[in-house]
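TA notes, week 10

Several of you asked for a full example with nothing omitted. So below is the full record: structure tokens for the whole chain, then the designed sequence directly under it. When grading your own attempts, check the secondary structure regions first.
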């Protein structure tokens, strides 16, 4: 069966790929995305989401253009409409061992395997690389703007990771993870330079690896 996705023009709606796959006999079409490739600290978190075919898909857009409160509202909306979803998390230690690209794909693999209900028939994956599974799939560059299912996954992944980093802020407040979520802001870089690193920093990342041997007194004093 040919499931090569059609060309998508910017003016077309972001549920076209899903409808195309439904017409090809695919029943459970899932979107996959991750959050946390760029930070200097914390895990990478992925989500896999199957939107109900009759839901209002138009409200699910790229998480990066939404406010924090809107993302929370849409997470609740996913629960209300009964969307099937799974979450996958890869910790900073594993990221350091296998690199962030492989870590991101592993997180998406885990998200797919953790999805509620039967496994997906087809995956729409944000980015250039497929998830390391035998499930039929199509990687989509800037997929959050092309597929509501991927956008929904981006929202769920972002909300989940933000919650994790808020919890880490309570353990390591000197780095202000509640605000920067582990991303390399000027304030975060300055905190690393002054205080060294903490256990959730990614030791192979530039901006962190230079300080691996520096004492980490700040977080030890919490």
């Amino acid at each position: 069966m040919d499931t090569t996705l059609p060309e998508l023009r910017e003016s077309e709606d972001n549920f076209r790929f899903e409808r195309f796959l439904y017409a090809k006999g695919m029943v459970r079409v899932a979107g996959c995305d991750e959050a946390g490739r760029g930070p200097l600290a914390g895990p990478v978190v992925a989500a896999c989401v199957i939107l109900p075919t009759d839901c209002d898909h138009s409200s699910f857009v790229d998480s990066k253009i939404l406010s924090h409160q809107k993302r929370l509202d849409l997470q609740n909306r996913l629960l209300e409409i009964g969307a099937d979803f799974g979450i996958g998390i890869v910790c900073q230690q594993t990221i350091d061992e296998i690199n962030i690209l492989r870590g991101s794909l592993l997180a998406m693999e885990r998200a797919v395997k953790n999805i509620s209900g039967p496994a997906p028939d087809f995956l729409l994956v944000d980015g250039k690389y497929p998830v390391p599974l035998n499930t039929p799939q199509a990687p989509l560059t800037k997929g959050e703007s092309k597929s509501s299912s991927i956008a929904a996954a981006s929202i769920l992944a972002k909300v989940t990771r933000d919650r994790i980093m808020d919890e880490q802020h309570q353990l390591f407040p000197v780095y202000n993870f509640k605000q920067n979520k582990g991303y390399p802001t000027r304030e975060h870089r300055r905190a690393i330079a002054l205080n060294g690193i903490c256990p959730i920093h990614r030791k192979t990342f530039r901006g962190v690896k230079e300080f691996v041997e520096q004492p980490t007194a700040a977080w030890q004093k919490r």
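Residues 168-220 form one domain. Use that as a sanity check on your answer.
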